[in-house]
Description:
Layout: H1 10-18, E1 70-71, E2 75-84, E3 87-94, E4 99-106, E5 110-111, E6 118-119, H2 123-135, H3 143-150, E7 157-163, E8 166-173, H4 180-183, H5 193-212, E9 225-227, H6 238-245, E10 249-252, E11 268-271, H7 284-287, E12 290-292, H8 321-324, H9 332-347, H10 359-370, H11 377-386, H12 389-393, H13 399-408, H14 413-416, H15 418-430, H16 440-453, H17 464-469, H18 471-483
Catalytic activity: L-seryl-[protein] + ATP = O-phospho-L-seryl-[protein] + ADP + H(+); L-threonyl-[protein] + ATP = O-phospho-L-threonyl-[protein] + ADP + H(+)
Keywords: ATP-binding, Kinase, Nucleotide-binding, Serine/threonine-protein kinase, Transferase
InterPro entries: Kinase-like_dom_sf (IPR011009), Prot_kinase_dom (IPR000719), Protein_kinase_ATP_BS (IPR017441), SRPK (IPR051334)
Amino acid sequence: MASRAESEDSETYFRLSEVYGSQNVSKPPNQRAQPHRMRMLYPKYNHILHVESLKCYHTGGYHPVELGDVIKNRYKIIDKLGYGSFSTVWLARDKLFQCYVAVKINISKTIDRTPDDIRSPGSNEANILRTLERSLIGQKLGPALLEGSKAIPRILGEFNIHGPNGIHSCLVMAPAQQDLWSCSICLDSKFRMKVARVLAAKLIAAVAMLHSRGIVHGDIYLKNVLTSLPKTIDKLTEEELKAKYGDPECHPIHRSDGRPLTSSVPSYAVVPMSLGLEADNFTTADAHRLLLMDYGESWAPASKTRTGLQCVGPICKRPPEAYFEPERALSYPSDIWRLGLSIWDIFSQAELFGQSYSQEEAIAQQIELFGLQSLPERWKEMWELEHPIQHRLGSRLSHAMWSTLTSMFNTTCPQVLEKPFSKLIQEPRREVTGAGIFGEEEKRAFLAMLGGMLQMDPNKRWNIQWVLRCQWMVSWAGPELLSTRPETTDST
């Protein structure tokens, strides 16, 4: 069987478990400097591909775990599902209920983006998920919110463990398959139209569920969207599981200075196992098991403020208001922006905005597509002041001439999206047998929806109720979601 490490894309493995609660935080350039702290010197280890940063096995860092360990006399560690900056996630066998679970073990403590706030890395996620769970007790939900509630992960267990590196909070959840980005865009594989519609509708319903409960997710993108494993996996013995998915891939850990390992670090590192499918192998039954994961950065705007400075996730996915108004509070529109980009990614061959090294570069891509006139007046003045026309065009065009040029491209958002839609969605899908393409009516409805969701001005951006009631959801995605529910379909 081929080694898991043969994969060229380490990001696939890295992000698989970040969706269980890791936060990739890029510090904005205008964020205030943190107070000076003494730098601790930790041992260095041999470099091993596709595993967590070994230098983080120290006090305040990861908990050392080895295969066969039994946590809380109940959860036997079978393999690794993945890792993130703030946690490792393990596939375990629940000895009490004889089923497989995901055990997420957080680092023992972390410092939030505000210097005076020290919190347990798993506490926010656990609190959010518990709040959502309590809000559903005794509630009669409509079809959309009912579907959305199924896409919110459930906490099966919560506890602390004491180890050589400190006290670690742990969450137990159902195990999930590979994230949607890793099995689609990463592999240049495409979801069939029926499947893509169900995935998009399910994700929209999940966000509707969150917003109806006063919660902003804060980090929506396809690496935080997974599908749960079918319950049939619980019927597999440990030996049958290994026969199906391969033996754990382990690599010995050595200190660079040749000294013996301490109890703070495991004796070997485990490469995360792959449980995923390629996008073109997904069925509608798989799509119905969609899970929106990673609530470590979620918040309730009614009781907590999160500003643009605290915006997390890939720079190319962050909403423009996080750049232009970094001190102002983010809210539900920031989720809608990321949701729109995620829906695009479900259908597309490539992301609408490419990887960026700075928020400024990401904004430049957005303005290149939507035009300067898409910005609120206050943002436009700020951008023009910071990016003189002489620098942009290499000439001495007057401000009036620049305004004339930009007004020529002041088309509506759906029209602006037509060219990238044709190049990145329609034509690539046309070339793949069985992928399916958009009909003309569905295309217009789809672009109208994305146009409303991707308004640069958050005050003009659609809210989630408008998305639920738009023509594309009512006429295409919604009916696909309801007609293919597992109890009424053959799961093809």
